[in-house]
């Protein structure tokens, strides 16, 4: 497979795309988001190619916000204007109500009625955007304009944008982190646990039953026999004496 690349040509192979991405990633012309990230550059170029943007246009016009590919408002308009069905776009700020500025965007596609979208200060307040630190506070009219434009173009030229939303819109979305998954608790099988306990008990019983019988020398055995005989003689003598005494009293030894 050929890996030759001519300056100004669109990569035709994965090798060409990676070679171009590595070259761009170290250039001062590379957007900071993609600096030293050739893999991200290749993906951005591929995303741009799917909607009709050349490599450098894709890097300048496509942004990844919280894992979602988006397109900046000006690149969005450029894509839609390149559609043969595009007729005209008219956008302006209606300031007739000084306390509620409204951005209006009118888009006309050939063979279709004019499509109109609006986005007002009240809409921005409802969404928690107006006076939000950043562009909404610094350039409120521009942000109202981008919202109205984004909605109008997405509704009218979905075939050109292929699901891409405007960067200005998506970066205002609240980031909701996925709940952390706690490690699953291992539930012991009661039957298996009972069998395991029985095995442990069997081992314990085996150990307790292994009692060694005492060993005695011949001398110790003789002494033990002598003691038993002596005890028996003492017991007989005692019973004899008790028997005589109890006979005199008229009762049996078992009565004591």
What can you see in these coordinates?
The chain is α+β, with helices and mostly antiparallel strands and about 260 residues long. About 50% of the residues lie in helices and about 15% in strands. Among the domains are: about 10-65, no CATH class; about 70-175, no CATH class. It is built from 11 helices and 6 strands. A 3-stranded mixed beta sheet has the order 1-2-6. A 3-stranded antiparallel beta sheet has the order 3-4-5. A hairpin with a 2-residue loop joins β1 and β2 (about 70). The N and C termini lie far apart (about 120 Å). The relative contact order is 0.08.
Set down the secondary structure blueprint.
Layout lengths: L13 H12 L12 H14 L3 H7 E4 L2 E4 L1 H9 L4 E9 L7 E8 L5 E6 H6 L8 H4 L1 H17 L1 H4 L3 E2 H4 L19 H20 L8 H32 L7
Parallel strand pairs: 2-6
Antiparallel strand pairs: 1-2, 3-4, 4-5
């Amino acid at each position: 497979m050929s890996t030759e690349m001519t300056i100004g040509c669109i990569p035709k192979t994965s090798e060409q795309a990676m070679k171009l991405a590595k070259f761009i990633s170290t250039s001062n012309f590379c957007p900071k988001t993609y600096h030293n990230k050739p893999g991200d550059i290749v993906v951005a170029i591929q995303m741009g190619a799917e909607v009709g943007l050349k490599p450098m246009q894709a890097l300048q016009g496509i942004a990844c916000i919280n894992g979602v590919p988006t397109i900046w408002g000006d690149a969005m308009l450029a894509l839609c204007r390149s559609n043969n069905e595009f007729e005209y776009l008219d956008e302006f700020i209606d300031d007739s109500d000084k306390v509620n500025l409204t951005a209006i965007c009118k888009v006309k596609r050939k063979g279709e009625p004019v499509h109109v979208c609006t986005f007002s200060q009240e809409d921005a307040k409802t969404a928690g955007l107006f006076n939000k630190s950043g562009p909404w506070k610094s350039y409120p009219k521009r942000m109202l304009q981008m919202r109205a434009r984004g909605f109008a173009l997405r509704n009218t030229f979905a075939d050109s944008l292929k699901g891409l939303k405007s960067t200005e819109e998506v970066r205002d979305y609240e980031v909701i982190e996925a709940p952390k998954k706690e490690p699953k608790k291992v539930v012991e099988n009661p039957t298996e646990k009972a069998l395991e306990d029985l095995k442990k008990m069997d081992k314990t019983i085996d150990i307790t039953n292994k009692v060694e019988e005492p060993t005695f020398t011949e001398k110790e055995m003789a002494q033990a026999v002598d003691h038993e005989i002596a005890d028996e003689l003492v017991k007989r003598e005692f019973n004899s004496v008790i028997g005589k005494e109890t006979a005199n009293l008229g009762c049996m030894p078992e009565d004591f």
